[in-house]
Amino acid sequence: MSERTNGGRGLAIGELVARTGVREATLRMWEHRHGFPVPERLASGHRRYHEADVELIGRVLRERAAGLSLAAAIERVRGAADQPEPSIFAGLRRLRPEIQPVALRKPVLIALSHSIEDESCARAERPLLFGAFQREQFYRLAQRRWTDLARTAELAVVFADFEREHVPERGPLEVPLKLADPLRREWAVVCEAPGHAVCLAGIELPHSAPRTEREREFEVIWSVEPDVVRAATEVCVGLLRLRAPGLAGRLPDESRLPPSGPPSDDQLRLAAAITTRTLGRLV
């Protein structure tokens, strides 16, 4: 029997060992001496861990490799984990530094974003859908499209410099960003559903001279790897809870989402389909 729990109830300790490379005895010692990681306990007494624990343990290992003691590394990681990640782009770069970003002009980025949205509309069943638009005026240009996308979503949320949070009769929840929020510089599309995961995050590059809309340039990463998409989803959920706590109750139960892991054949086909759509738009 697989050690992966059913119904999205978390990771068994054996799977956490496989995902992190940290021995079971070591994880138990960390828990006993430092209260980290913090598992949930089933009625049987077995430990169950969250997907986020995989990344937190990875951060501890990186802090240890940088020279911190175990206690100091855990304390630093635990303190950082208490604060929501303010940037999708920075969070994904930290999680997967080997993913190389590419500089894209705005027309290419629009083509890629629309391809991701179209594939998600065609394939994803009741997804969690998030978009970051920087400014309200940019979202209004895409509002009709996103209203249609939200129609079949479990939850759809958009972030921009809205004056206030808003729950429209139809369409995504509108969540305002503060002037200092890093997400105000970012462009993002995140879609996660059972059997479907894709995310895009871009940060606008600084420039010294005025640029036209077509000349605007972003450093962009995108992925169909479920664990990368889950990290992007968690950043968006954290921002929703921080910036619009009254809307956080609309979040579905996490058990609706599948455990993350390496990309399946379906995910690889999704990447190919998105690439093909994007090229078709640019021809």
Structure, explained:
The protein is of the alpha+beta class. 43% of the residues lie in helices and 17% in strands. The chain has helices at residues 13-20, 24-34, 51-65, 70-81, 88-95, 106-123, 136-150, 226-243, 265-282; strands at residues 40-41, 47-48, 102-105, 128-132, 155-160, 173-176, 186-193, 196-204, 217-223. The strands form 2 sheets. Strands 3-9-8-7-4-5-6 form a 7-stranded mixed sheet, sandwiched between helices. Strands 1-2 form a two-stranded antiparallel sheet. α3 (51-65) packs across α4, α5 (88-95) runs antiparallel to α8 and α6 (106-123) crosses α9 (265-282). The longest helix is centred in the middle third of the chain and has 18 residues, at 106-123. The chain is globular, with a radius of gyration of 20 Å.
Could you give the topology of this structure?
Elements: H1 13-20, H2 24-34, E1 40-41, E2 47-48, H3 51-65, H4 70-81, H5 88-95, E3 102-105, H6 106-123, E4 128-132, H7 136-150, E5 155-160, E6 173-176, E7 186-193, E8 196-204, E9 217-223, H8 226-243, H9 265-282
Parallel strand pairs: 4-5, 5-6
Antiparallel strand pairs: 1-2, 3-9, 4-7, 7-8, 8-9
Which characteristics define this entry?
43% helix; 283 residues; 9 strands; globular; alpha+beta; disordered N terminus
The proportion of residues forming helix, as a percent range, comes to 40-55%
Summed up, the helix count is 9
Rg calc: 20 Å
Order of helices and strands: HHEEHHHEHEHEEEEEHH
